[in-house]
Amino acid sequence: MTQDITSSHPDKTRLPFAPAHRLSVAPMMDWTDRHCRYFHRLLAPKAALYTEMVTADAIRFGARDRLLNGHHMDQDKPDDNAIILQLGGADPVALAEAIAMAESYDYAEYNLNVGCPSDRVQSGRFGAALMADPVLVGELVSAMRSATRRPVSVKCRLGIDDMDTEQTLDRFIDTIIESGVDHMIIHARKAWLNGLSPKENRDIPPLDYDRVYGLKSRLAAGADDIPISINGGFSDWHHIRMGLDHVDGVMIGRAAYQQPAKLAVWAAQVFDHEPVDGDTVMAAMADYADAEIANGARLISITRHMLGFANGRKGAKRWRRTLSEDARDPASRGDLIRMAWDSLNQEHEEAA
User: Fold this and answer.
1) What is the pTM of this model?
2) Closest CA to 268 of 76, 49, 42
3) pLDDT at 7 over 50
4) Distances from the Cα of 128 to the Cα of 120, 146, 158, 169, angstroms
5) Do 287 and 265 belong together in one domain?
6) Which residues are CB-neighbours of 138 under 8 A, at least 6 positions away?
7) Which residues are catalytic?
8) Which residue range is the domain that position 107 belongs to?
9) Which of 271, 288, 306 is a domain's end point?
């Protein structure tokens, strides 16, 4: 059955690397939901944004519209379509079927998760555990490509557990390239599936940017040069700029979420445009909140993603309290965002 799927799309012609990938915001479970992506799109209008990981079976058998709808701000603006659906799974048929079902939702790209180290993901034999089986990952990529004409990418680690990050990583990447993958995103750490929690796996394994840069150099010198993005620990402009000197794109995770005002600055620097105006962003978020609340959402589900926007400013504590505590009131509306923003600006002016 896998053969039937993959044979329908045998060519390995890669699609052009989207400029949006020069700066992207990582897929983060429980964080990068559609409300978060709306906020991040306002801050970084030209960047690539990833969904939370969605399992193939959740799309096939779950509430598909709830999982896949509502990810674009404006269908008429190409920049707003740089949304990548990240998928989890280890069954080629299931992944191909999930993509076929997702095609009408107009995602820009499909990404396979080969980096998540959580116990739940391991029990399903996908995520980072797939790094032990590059042949299977190649089959998954081939199956995914059979279901779409959009790009297919893979996000992985440097390795897992005792896996050698030199020859073993090269073999892994070369196998995936042979499957026709369009783009690789590499989290520049190992994942320790035995002995570290998912949280510890985000911090304890040491970063090794040079290994990713070396991989890109090797590929660039040969016939199999494909776009490489790097992820892991990027939290200031110096390191982002250095990354872009060596690879095709930089993916930011927690720093983008926890310091969204900095995301706006970094995006302006990468894409050479003026930083977005805070007044404009907050007015748009208030309007968005009113529209979403009218459709059944609660304000706290939106404002929880905005708490870090005032970090480092006078009044940041009150801003966080308002958007976390007061936003829990079922009667709260977008005016709470307007009020909190006005109060923050007033404190800033008084301090000046």
Assistant:
1) 0.91
2) 42
3) no
4) 11, 23, 10, 13
5) no
6) 175, 176, 178, 179
7) 116
8) 2-271
9) 271
